[in-house]
Write a structure and sequence with these properties.
about 210 residues; alpha/beta; Rossmann fold; two-stranded antiparallel ribbon; binds 5-O-phosphono-beta-D-ribofuranosylamine
C-alpha cells in the first residue's frame, strides 16, 4: 500500500476531504509549517501523525526544505500532497519529489497563478472560474494539469461566495487525483506530460457542474 504525506498551512478543509475519502493508500503523516494550523488537530482526530515544522525556526529556505524532506522521507512517502501549503518550495525540493508531488490551486490554471485568485477572477470579469490539481514543477502554479473543476461566476458573487463554490469542487477533484495516483493510474512522464490510464479520452478530468 502506498504512503501519502500531506503538507498544510491552515484550516485543512482539503485535508479533511482527503482523510474522509477512503483512499486506497495510507496517510502516513500531516506536516504543517504553521504550528497553529487547525488541520493538525484534524489529523490527530483521524489518528494520523501530525507534525509542526515551523519555518521561522530555520535560517534559510534551503534549511527548512531539507528538514521538511527529512520528515517526509522518514514516513516513506510515495506521494506528497500540498493541501493549502502556503510556502514556496525550493527547486531542489521540487526536483527531489518530481512526479510524486501534487498541488491544488484555486483557479483554472494557467489563469490566476499566485494569491487572491477569487478577487482577481471577479475583477477580470471571467464567467467561469474553478480549481486545478497539478504536478508541481519549479515554476510556481505552472506544473502539468491533472484535473480541473469549473464553476460559473454569478452576477451576485463576492469573493466569499465564489471561494465557497470553488472549494466545494476542490474537495471533489483532489481526492480523485490522489486516488488515481495511489491506484497507479496517474503518472508524470519523463517528458513532463500527465498520463492517466483507464479513463476515456475526455475522461473525468474536467468537472463542470450544470449552471443554475
Ligand atoms: C484552498 O483554496 C487551496 O486551493 C489553496 O489554499 C486553500 C486551502 O484551504 N491552495 P484548506 O486549508 O484546504 O481549507
Amino acid at each position: 500500500m502506498k504512503s501519502v504525506v500531506i503538507l498544510i498551512s491552515g484550516r485543512g478543509s482539503n485535508l479533511q476531504a482527503l482523510l474522509e475519502a477512503s483512499l486506497p493508500g495510507r496517510i502516513a503523516a500531516v506536516i504543517s509549517n504553521r504550528p497553529q494550523a487547525a488541520g493538525l488537530e484534524l489529523a490527530r482526530r483521524h489518528g494520523v501523525a501530525a507534525i509542526a515544522l515551523d519555518h521561522r525556526g530555520y535560517a534559510s529556505r534551503e534549511q527548512f526544505d531539507a528538514a521538511l524532506a527529512a520528515e517526509i522521507d522518514r514516513h516513506d512517502a510515495d506521494l506528497v500532497v500540498l493541501a493549502g501549503f502556503m510556502r514556496i518550495l525550493g527547486d531542489d525540493f521540487v526536483r527531489r519529489y518530481s512526479g510524486r508531488l501534487l498541488n491544488i490551486h484555486p483557479s483554472l490554471l494557467p489563469l490566476f497563478p499566485g494569491l487572491d485568485t477569487h478577487a482577481r477572477a471577479l475583477a477580470a470579469g471571467v464567467k467561469i472560474h474553478g480549481a486545478s490539481v497539478h504536478f508541481v514543477t519549479p515554476a510556481l502554479d505552472a506544473g502539468p494539469l491533472v484535473i480541473q473543476a469549473a464553476v460559473p461566476v454569478l452576477a451576485a458573487d463576492n469573493e466569499e461566495t465564489l471561494a465557497a463554490r470553488v472549494l466545494a469542487q476542490e474537495h471533489k477533484i483532489y481526492p480523485q487525483a490522489v486516488r488515481w495516483f495511489l491506484e497507479g493510474r496517474l503518472e508524470l512522464s519523463a517528458e513532463g506530460r500527465v498520463a492517466l490510464r483507464g479513463e476515456g479520452d475526455a475522461g473525468p478530468a474536467l468537472i463542470a457542474p450544470a449552471l443554475g
